[in-house]
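Record minuted for completeness.

…
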Amino acid sequence: MALLSLATACGRGEATATTAEPERNAAATPVAVLRAEGGFVTASMNVLRAPRVVVYSDGLVIADAAYQMTITKAEVTQTVDAMKKFLTGQPPTASPKPGAPMVTDIPATVLSVAGDDGKMIEVRAEALEQVADFYPHGLVDAKNLLDDLAVKATKKNEKYTADRVRLAAESVPTAEGKKTPWPAGVPEPSGQVDPVWQKDLSGAEVPALVKAAPPIPDGGLPIFKTQSGVFVLSWRYLLPSE
C-alpha cells in the first residue's frame, strides 16, 4: 500500500471536522466507518478497496466487505458515543505534531461517525498508525476501537455476501498463463481500457461472475480474453450502503 507524503506541519488552527450527509439506505445506515484513502496501490485495488469496517445503525458490522457480525443496539450506541468523543473538535484533516518522521506511500486513515444531527463527522489522518505518537490520542483510540470490531468480525468467520458486486478488469496485454473466454452473462470491457474498467453488477450477472471467478482465487487472478484485449479480473461484494 502507499501514496501521499506525510505532512509534518500545517493546519493546527483549522475549523472543526467536516460534516457531510451520510449514505442513506432505508435498511442500513452507516454510523461509524474506518477506511483507507490514497496510498500506492494498483488501479484495480483502488477501485475495489472496501472500508476496513462499517458499523450500521441496526447492529450489522461488515469488515473488508468480506466478513460480517451483528452487535447489540447497546453496543452500537457505545461505539457511536465513543467515536463522537474521539472525533468531535478534531480538524477535518489532522496533522501530526512537529517532529514526526516523514512517511511516504502509506494510505491515510479516514474515521467517520454519525453526529447528533445525523451528519457524518469525518477526520482524515496521514500515516496514523505509523506515527501514532505524534497524533492526538483520541484519533488513535478511534482507529483501534473500529479496528478491534473488524478483527472480531473476521474471527467469527461469517462470510459477507450480497446480490451486487463491483467488478474491475485491468488490461494486461502481456499477461502470461491460461487465457479464458470472458464469462458468459457478464458485461465485458469494450474499447480501450486505460488502465482499469469497472462495473457494478446485479441480478443474474452476479452468479455468472462468481462461478467464473471466485472472490479469492487460489492460483492468482484469472486471465480473460475478449475482442478488446486481455484482462485480469477481480471483484468484491458491494456494501448495503454503496
Remarks:
- The chain has a mean pLDDT of 83.
- Residues 164-237 form one domain.
- Helices lie at 43-48, 73-87, 137-156, 205-212.
